[in-house]
Amino acid sequence: xxxxxxxxxxxSKQNRIFxxxxxxxxxxxxxxxxxKNGAGKTTLxxxxxxxxxxxxxxxTLDGLIPARREPGFLxxxxxxxxxxxVPSLTPxxxxxxxxxxxxxxDPAQFGEFLEKFKLDADQNCSGMSHGQKRKAMIAFxxxxxxxYLFLDEPTSGxxxxxxxxxxxxxxxxxxEEKTIILSTHMVRDLESLIDSVIxxxxxxxxxxxxxxxxxxxxxxxHSSLSSSPGEIIYSVKRELGTTMISLNPSGITGNVDLxxxxxxxxDIPDKLSSYFKH
Length: 278
Description:
Blueprint: E1 2-12, E2 15-25, E3 29-35, H1 41-49, E4 56-61, H2 71-74, E5 77-80, H3 91-98, H4 107-116, H5 130-144, E6 148-152, H6 160-173, E7 179-183, H7 187-190, E8 196-201, E9 204-210, H8 211-217, E10 218-223, E11 232-238, E12 241-247, H9 258-267, H10 269-274
Parallel strand pairs: 3-7, 3-8, 5-6, 6-7
Antiparallel strand pairs: 1-2, 1-4, 8-9, 10-12, 11-12
């Protein structure tokens, strides 16, 4: 379990990123971490991984304090940052050097992931494109089989077939013992994977719920306003019609439109949060 209590963090006192933030993340979920630019998504991942340190409050993973960077903690956590920095090595040599730090690393699985990404284990990363380097790092991250896996903008720089391959690999490697956070602006790329959503705004978490709970309360539709099955609480006009969020009178769950949900959380946060208080 990731447990954050009364976390306060800033880069400068005039620009506080978090103020008494509280959050619990449980195993067996793929969390979508959403927020506008500067909301603190990357900072939150760094705090959880022990790459940044709270000014006050606590962050723990299964009782361990990330800032201490203990070997047992580091062996069970992996972060793929948005900005990829890969040494001038082949993916195979990179794995030879670094896989020993991860007891559950599976070399056969790593080779399979590289193949699905159409990458050569013997090609030097210095000659790879940005997208190819990201794919190599994602393949290694998945093959470590750490219980905690955090990916910051994982589909950035990936072409359409590679995005599909990534979704397939992540779904296949997921298990109930793992906690995965996908921090992204590209919700359309990842909404089929995400089962819980966390939305950051104004230095705090304004929504943190499993998608099935959201779908029990709300219905998402795209058509004329007159076709909504329940009370409309939010709507936005798009090029090909109107996208709406309505109260769900039946309780029968459907799909959650993460992009529309995010926009509603930003535009009507108090109204939307009132439906989830209980």
